[in-house]
Design brief:
The complex is a heterodimer of chains A (283) and B (287). With 283 residues, chain A is mostly helical. Chain A folds into two domains: 1-64 and 255-283, no CATH class; 81-239, MetI-like fold. Chain A is built from eleven helices and no strands. In chain A, helix 1 (9-36) crosses helix 11 (257-282) and helix 7 (186-193) packs across helix 8. Chain B contains 14 helices and two strands. Chain B has helices at 2-37, 52-59, 61-95, 98-114, 116-127, 132-139, 153-164, 166-177, 181-189, 194-222, 226-231, 239-248, 253-278, 282-286; strands spanning 39-41, 47-49. A two-stranded antiparallel sheet of chain B has the order 1-2. In chain B, strand 1 (39-41) and strand 2 form a beta hairpin. In chain B, helix 12 packs antiparallel against helix 13 (253-278). Classes of the chains: A mainly alpha (283), B mainly alpha (287). At the A-B interface, helix 1, helix 3, helix 4, helix 5 and helix 6 of A face helix 1, helix 3, helix 4, helix 5 and helix 9 of B.
Chain lengths: 283, 287
């Protein structure tokens, strides 16, 4: 059953077959996309018509590759930009929330903490429509009462950032809190007794200790933003992020350029994951 | 006194951004959702209080039918995810050596970071009438015409399972890691069979992980939009799709808000129930 106990051969082989099937199930869609990204065919699926790089580089009437498709390039830039802003914002506020809930005592802390982790169990679609309703209401009110038209409150790039930030900050908070729980408080007490102000203590003692968790949280927030669709789809204006762009292409007829861009995403993520894995193992 | 004052500056510095986040982006929007769900426009174009949005839901059997179907499928997928994931979590923590476990966990995480859209699209290519699976089955002569798999409830369940399974594996792995092998060895030495060890030791011990996993999987599935929309057929309507169409196709925001609130209510109720029955706290689910 476990490493230290003997098992019958049948049990062992059966278990191994199950695990193999599970991991095949896991990688199958990724491998399919990656292989078909190089298929010399105008359709997204099989049959295999030979190897080509057209879906990356071609720029003809019939085939437009990833790097020639201006719309696609634009949405990649929009996604990268959104990802960085969301990651930066949620890292800052999420870390502040972690410090607040782990180190401070105040009234209504329980309710506030409940609200802070709520996005974890809040369907993304609900967050999307709520923020859409809230911002529209605010926009209408400002226009009616004061005659100001606030562009930001309509579905737009900025609204997407706010929507994604709203749940990404929760994940940052949880990741930073996890490290803060293992923090040796005597370090802070030492700094305080040496006449450091509390802000100095946080800046020079606590934050350097939290640095690995903060960097990790930044990456997680970026990836959450980069792949989000449930919340984003309600808040997007005229500048689609990459998942929204791909979604509408899948919905309204697609070419193998979708395989190519998906392959690139799988490639970048896999390299990133491997590098991260081996760096972590060295430590 | 001095000390106390410094303490306060930091406190305010920390709490103001956090309050802004929670009040402006979480509390107020959801209050707006609640208020909008009770409002309709009258003939003069003003918003007035009304129960019509909710009545529209209860009077149309397509709406509440979809609602019940979504809830039922979400429970089903959650159970399925547990049955499939548990042996994997056990294998990765207790059977295989630590060296390989790390790499396999990495493999498990890649589909998550790649994002749901890409993986759902991959399943679309695999399951279609001209898709990879049908192509191979035809090629091998096992079938003589394509099996219809895409745009059915089956393909939808595969998609939902695929995107949520991982969230079951990881919490179970976390609890199993802290299970001391000595318990299992002791039980085995005393003559307990595999099934007894499994039901009397392993399952009860990993319950907190199973509950966390089940809650997260359930939430993800019930709130999912892509898998039902892309992989599901005309008849596999999902409740989120109806919210989407109310907001972005028919522009009936009042009804959309009511639907959203019902979904929020249903999902909160089930999470609350799961927490109550298992005696866990929401805080634990996060960690």
């Amino acid at each position: 059953m476990i490493r230290s106990l003997p098992n019958s051969t049948g049990y062992k082989i059966g278990y191994r077959i199950y695990i193999t099937i599970f991991f095949l199930f896991l990688v199958m869609p990724l491998i399919t996309i990656s292989v078909l990204a190089f298929n010399d065919s105008n359709f997204i699926a099989l049959p295999w018509e030979g190897f080509t790089l057209d879906w990356f580089f071609a720029d003809t009437d019939e085939r437009v590759g990833v790097f020639a498709d201006q719309d696609l390039i634009d949405s990649i830039y929009i996604s990268l930009g959104t990802g960085f802003i969301v990651a930066a914002l949620s890292t800052i506020v999420g870390t502040m929330a972690a410090l607040l809930f782990e180190e401070e005592k105040f009234r209504f802390k329980g309710i506030l903490y409940f609200l802070a982790i709520a996005p974890l169990v809040l369907p993304g679609v609900i967050l999307g429509i709520s923020i859409l309703l809230g911002s529209t209401y605010l926009g209408e009110m400002l226009e009616l009462r004061f005659g100001i038209d606030v562009e930001m409150l309509r579905p737009s790039y900025w609204l997407v950032i706010l929507g994604q930030f709203a749940f990404a900050a929760t994940y940052v908070m949880l990741l930073v809190s996890a490290r803060l729980k293992k923090y040796d408080r005597t370090l802070e007490e030492a700094a305080l007794s040496l006449k450091a102000t509390r802000i100095q203590t946080i800046w020079y003692v606590t934050l350097p200790y939290l640095k690995p968790a903060i960097i990790g949280a930044f990456v997680v927030a970026f990836l959450l933003s980069f792949s989000n669709i449930n919340t984003t789809i309600f808040l997007i204006g005229s500048d689609p992020t990459i998942p929204i762009d791909l979604y509408s292409r899948i919905r309204f007829g697609s070419t193998p350029v979708l395989n190519a861009i998906s392959f690139l995403i799988v490639l970048v993520i896999s390299i990133f994951a491997l590098v991260n894995f081996f760096m972590y193992r060295k430590k | 006194m001095q000390q106390k004052k410094r303490f306060n500056t930091t406190f305010w510095l920390l709490i103001v951004p956090v309050l802004l986040w929670l009040v402006v982006l979480i509390v107020l929007p959801h209050l707006d959702l609640l208020i909008s769900s009770f409002q309709v426009k009258n003939s003069a174009g003003e918003n007035v209080f009304s129960l019509n949005n909710y009545l529209a839901f209860f009077n149309n059997d397509i709406y509440w039918g979809t609602f019940l179907k979504t809830a039922g499928y979400a429970v089903f997928v959650t159970l399925l995810a547990f049955v499939i994931s548990f042996p994997v979590a056990f294998y990765l923590t207790k059977v295989i050596s630590k060296k390989y476990a790390g790499l396999l966990v990495l493999l498990l995480l890649i589909p998550l970071w790649v994002g749901e859209l890409v993986t759902v699209y991959g399943w679309m290519i695999l399951l279609g009438d001209h898709g990879v699976i049908n192509h191979f089955l035809l090629f091998l002569g096992m079938i003589d015409k394509p099996i219809n798999m895409l745009y059915t409830d089956l393909s939808m369940v595969i998609g939902l399972l695929y995107m949520s399974m991982l969230f079951m594996v990881v919490p179970i792995m976390t609890t199993l890691e802290s299970l001391d092998d000595a318990y299992i060895e002791a039980a085995s030495d005393l003559g307990a069979g595999k099934w007894t060890i499994f039901t009397k030791i392993i399952i009860p011990y990993s319950m907190p992980g199973i509950i966390s996993g089940a809650i997260i999987v359930f939430m993800l599935v019930i709130g999912d939009f892509l898998a039902p929309d892309i992989l599901g057929g005309k008849h596999s309507l999902w409740f989120t799709e109806q919210i989407y169409s109310k907001f972005l196709q028919t522009f009936n925001w009042g009804e959309g808000a009511a639907f959203g609130f019902l979904l929020l209510f249903l999902s909160s109720a089930i999470v609350w129930l799961a927490l109550k029955l298992s005696g866990q706290k929401l805080e634990k689910v996060g960690s």
